[in-house]
């Protein structure tokens, strides 16, 4: 693909998949409640328009620069995450030799940006959400980096395209079966959904988003979806062989695999209750972290 | 090259998002009045500003986190040479992780994952 | 273009819950055409459901001003005078969804003017003028912006004794997942509540599910009606908890079941219970969270008492029930989990009674156990005693593990 086509594909992928998640959310809720979905395809667009029509809010003495910057940076991070993903063997927007390291930076900076968002409104509910999110966001990041490094072992490289090429014979999801499930948790945590919604949850009146309205909120909500797209695309690439697949062209395979991973992520976010932050912290360190170690050792033994 | 691309993407999205917020604020005539700025607390108004020396109850967990985060830095180059180095690399990283795991167990015993 | 799209979205509504309207509002929650928001910042319509105390008017005005433009207020209840125009009110017996949609569409198109602010457009205290940038002087934040001080001086924490800032604020009366009408002055250290003080009490609850019980005072009533009301009441309580732990779709399912029970349909609760268990509802309620002591449980009565292991239930003494081999269900632990299990058990038992004796009648004046806490605890047992030491999300779980009657009794009753 030429750079122009590649950039357009990237834009379409990001926007299209974000819309797809919103549609899935609506369909899932309707199915579980046993009612007809309400204009399932167009509803996300209606809601965008509603949010954009609202006035942008301010609070008393907010940290305005950071408050406006946080949603923008969050969306930007998600965008670079998607850019790391190759659409086919010859077309990747950012062919970085150390793509996995960049993705690690995206994860770390997401924690910073979400904290900043909750902090800068100068409101107690947002502040609680911000601090609470950091507690969970940090250790989840470790888990995801362990499983990503495990996936990099057989490729002998930290470049995302090389990791795909290493999966020609066997996808990592089979070679390292613990990797994908652990990585999916990261997706929920990075976009704080369902059981990992410690930042913008209902008990905090939407937490870090409780004081925003208008365009800032639109960017924030879009960034959450975009970050989920980025994680799903990354999961499809690192664990499900990305563009690899018979008959169909590469980009289509990536699209299909990402779409399937997103169904899983949406299901997970609706299926599980949010436990108290301290219990989640224990669960992450005592149960999930050792599982990530096992995944790493497993991958190491298989790679030898 | 790829790095420039990523930074361009980042910059473009950030600029676009800021522009959207700026334009949206500019095209509306209604001003945010003072009573609208009061933080939401179910109808109540706060006595003080929210910024505070916040009691971060998981601070001891963050120390454990830093230990692992440092380890992550060593793992990046390790992952690249792993297959070439073979069993030796596996054993070395295994020992490193084992030592850090003792840290988790110690922290667990000390109750650093509880909210206090 | 934007207007046309926006007008077709679900109406973003923030609900200020007044008296007696909880079940009606819960009906709204189920409607896909209405988007009940968690904060007024995301809403375009402030729905005032039922009557609000005169003393709460200032809180309501503040809430109103927090909505972004375009905004409008909608009154739902019978108490509104003629000063409110037709477009912005509905009688309590009416379904307001259509009216809300019309109001919203007009608001978006500009046919209905956005409401102006109700409180004065001035900061709570004068502070501008001093300092290099007019910020009000010196200090950590460069003076006293908005006349608000920095958080209070450090005090030892009740969990670990660390000395850090405390943050004191009033919360309520229109907070989501918060007893309607309750205003507490809460002191936080970080996200843990250090102390709480009642400023305004909760509104006394009056449920639709109370109707058959009130009926029973004067006339012979069907057992089925009584037990259906009980099941519906418990399902609504369960729905609140489900929504709080981040399971909104399951919560709506519980709401739908409650509505169907009230409409005399035959339903099964077991699938909901199973789905809730599979979703890790138990894990979300830590064992021992919200455990109350025996005396408080006994003083409150009702399901709270049975969740504490006391098999006390007026139905055991009623011949109609004894003929059906009625024995009270109970739990032992007296914590949030036990109260949740008690709601499930009692709702299932109620429906089993309905199917065992669909035609049984109960004589008027018979003493039948109500589905809620029915006695007032002594003055030293207050909701304010339950909250200190709890992290914010735990505190909300504890509050929502009680029925609204119990909460009302644990916060002092309103002066008549």
TrEMBL record, chain A:
UniProt membrane topology term: Multi-pass membrane protein
Domain of life (superkingdom): Bacteria
Record's keyword annotation contains NAD: yes
One GO process term, biological-process aspect: aerobic respiration
GO MF entries: NADH dehydrogenase activity
GO terms under cellular component: plasma membrane
Keyword Transmembrane helix: yes
Record keywords, A-Z: Membrane, NAD, Transmembrane, Transmembrane helix
Protein's cellular compartments: Cell membrane; Membrane
Membrane-spanning residues: 6-28, 72-94, 100-119, 131-153, 173-192, 225-246, 252-273, 280-301
InterPro entries: NADH_UbQ_OxRdtase_su1/FPO
Family: Belongs to the complex I subunit 1 family.
Protein name stated in the entry: NuoH2 NADH chain H
UniProtKB/TrEMBL annotation, chain B:
Official protein name in the record: NADH-quinone oxidoreductase subunit
The UniProt record lists the keyword Repressor: no
Function: NDH-1 shuttles electrons from NADH, via FMN and iron-sulfur (Fe-S) centers, to quinones in the respiratory chain.
Taxonomic superkingdom: Bacteria
Cellular localization per UniProt: Cell membrane; Membrane
Keyword Acetylation (UniProt): no
Pfam families linked to this entry: Oxidored_q4 (PF00507)
Top EC class for this record: translocase
Bilayer disposition of the protein: Multi-pass membrane protein
GO CC field: NADH dehydrogenase complex; plasma membrane
Keywords: Membrane, NAD, Quinone, Transmembrane, Transmembrane helix, Transport
Gene3D superfamilies the UniProt entry points to: NADH:ubiquinone/plastoquinone oxidoreductase, chain 3
InterPro entries according to UniProt: NADH_UbQ/plastoQ_OxRdtase_su3, NDAH_ubi_oxred_su3_sf
PANTHER family: NADH-UBIQUINONE OXIDOREDUCTASE CHAIN 3 (PTHR11058:SF9)
Reaction equation(s) it catalyzes: a quinone + NADH + 5 H(+)(in) = a quinol + NAD(+) + 4 H(+)(out)
Organism: Salinisphaera japonica YTM-1
Chain segments annotated as transmembrane: 6-25, 63-83, 89-108
Family note: Belongs to the complex I subunit 3 family.
GO MF entries: NADH dehydrogenase (ubiquinone) activity; quinone binding
Enzyme Commission no: 7.1.1.-
């Amino acid at each position: 693909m030429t750079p122009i086509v590649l950039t357009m594909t990237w834009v379409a992928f990001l926007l299209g998949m974000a819309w797809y998640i919103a549609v899935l959310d609506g369909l899932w809720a309707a199915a579980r409640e046993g009612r007809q979905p309400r204009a399932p395809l167009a509803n996300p667009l209606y809601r965008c328009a509603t949010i954009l029509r609202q006035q942008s809010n301010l609070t008393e003495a907010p940290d305005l620069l950071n408050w406006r910057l946080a949603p923008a940076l969050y969306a930007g991070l998600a965008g670079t995450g998607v850019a790391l993903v190759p659409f086919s063997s010859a077309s990747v927007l950012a062919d970085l030799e150390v793509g996995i390291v960049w993705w690690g930076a995206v994860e770390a900076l997401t924690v910073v940006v979400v904290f900043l968002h909750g902090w800068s409104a100068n409101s107690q509910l947002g502040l609680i959400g911000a601090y609470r999110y950091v507690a969970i966001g940090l250790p989840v990041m470790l888990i995801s980096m362990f499983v990503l490094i495990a996936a990099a072992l057989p490729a002998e490289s930290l470049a995302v395209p090389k990791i795909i090429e290493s999966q020609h014979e066997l996808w990592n999801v089979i070679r390292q079966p613990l990797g994908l499930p652990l990585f999916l948790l990261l997706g929920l945590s990075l976009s704080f959904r369902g059981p990992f919604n410690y930042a913008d949850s209902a008990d905090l009146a939407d937490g870090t988003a409780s004081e925003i309205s208008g365009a800032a909120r639109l960017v924030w909500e879009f960034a959450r979806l975009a970050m989920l797209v980025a994680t799903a695309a990354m999961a499809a690439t690192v664990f499900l062989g990305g563009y690899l697949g018979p008959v169909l062209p590469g980009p289509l395979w990536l699209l299909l695999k990402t779409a399937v991973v997103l169904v899983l992520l949406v299901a997970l976010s609706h299926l599980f209750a949010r436990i108290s932050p301290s219990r989640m912290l224990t669960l992450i360190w005592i149960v999930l972290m050792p599982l990530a170690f096992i995944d790493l050792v497993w991958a190491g033994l298989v790679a030898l | 090259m790829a790095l420039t691309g990523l930074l361009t993407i980042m910059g473009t999205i950030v600029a676009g998002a800021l522009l959207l917020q700026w334009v949206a604020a500019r095209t509306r005539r209604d001003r945010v009045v003072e009573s609208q700025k009061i933080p939401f607390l179910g109808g109540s108004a706060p006595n003080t500003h929210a910024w505070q020396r916040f009691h971060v109850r998981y601070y001891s967990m963050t120390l454990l986190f830093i230990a692992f985060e440092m380890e992550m830095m060593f793992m990046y180059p390790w992952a690249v040479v792993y297959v070439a180095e073979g069993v030796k690399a596996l054993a070395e990283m295994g020992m490193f992780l084992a030592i850090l795991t003792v840290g988790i167990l110690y922290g667990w015993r000390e109750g650093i994952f509880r909210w206090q | 273009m934007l207007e046309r799209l926006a007008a077709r979205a679900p109406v973003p509504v923030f609900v200020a819950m007044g008296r007696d309207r909880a079940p009606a509002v819960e009906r709204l929650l189920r409607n896909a055409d209405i988007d009940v928001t968690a904060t007024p910042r995301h809403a375009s319509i402030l729905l005032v459901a039922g009557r609000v105390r005169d003393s709460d008017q200032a809180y309501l005005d503040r809430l109103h001003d927090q909505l972004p433009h375009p905004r409008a207020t909608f009154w739902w209840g019978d108490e509104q005078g003629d000063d409110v125009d037709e477009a912005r009110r509905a009688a309590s017996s009416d379904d307001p969804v259509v009216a809300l949609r019309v109001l919203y569409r007009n608001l978006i198109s500009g046919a209905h003017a956005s409401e102006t602010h109700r409180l004065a457009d001035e900061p709570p205290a004068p502070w501008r003028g001093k300092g290099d940038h007019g910020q009000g002087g010196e200090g950590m934040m460069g003076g006293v912006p908005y006349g608000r001080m920095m958080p209070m001086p450090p005090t030892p924490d009740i969990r670990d004794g660390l000395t850090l800032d405390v943050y004191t604020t009033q919360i309520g009366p229109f907070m989501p997942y918060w007893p309607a009408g309750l205003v507490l002055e809460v002191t936080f250290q970080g996200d843990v509540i250090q102390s709480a003080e009642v400023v305004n009490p909760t509104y006394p609850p009056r449920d639709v599910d109370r109707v058959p019980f009130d009926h029973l005072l004067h006339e012979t009533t069907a057992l089925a009606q009584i037990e259906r009301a009980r099941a519906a009441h418990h399902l609504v309580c369960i729905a609140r908890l489900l929504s709080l732990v981040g399971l909104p779709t399951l919560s709506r399912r519980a709401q739908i079941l409650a509505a169907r029970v009230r409409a005399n349909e035959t339903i099964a609760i077991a699938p909901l219970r199973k789905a809730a268990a599979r979703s890790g509802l138990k894990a979300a309620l830590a064992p021992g969270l919200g455990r109350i002591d025996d005396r408080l449980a006994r003083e409150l009565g009702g399901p709270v008492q049975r969740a504490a292991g006391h098999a006390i239930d007026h139905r055991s003494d009623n011949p109609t029930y004894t003929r059906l081999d009625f024995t009270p269900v109970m739990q032992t632990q007296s914590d949030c989990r036990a109260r949740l299990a008690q709601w499930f058990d009692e709702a299932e038992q109620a429906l089993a009674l309905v199917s065992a004796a669909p035609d049984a009648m109960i004589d008027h004046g018979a003493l039948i156990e109500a589905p809620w806490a029915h006695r007032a605890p002594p003055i030293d047992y207050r909701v304010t005693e339950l909250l200190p030491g709890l992290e914010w999300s735990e505190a909300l779980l504890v509050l929502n593990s009680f029925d609204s009657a119990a909460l009302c009794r644990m916060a002092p009753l309103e002066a008549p």
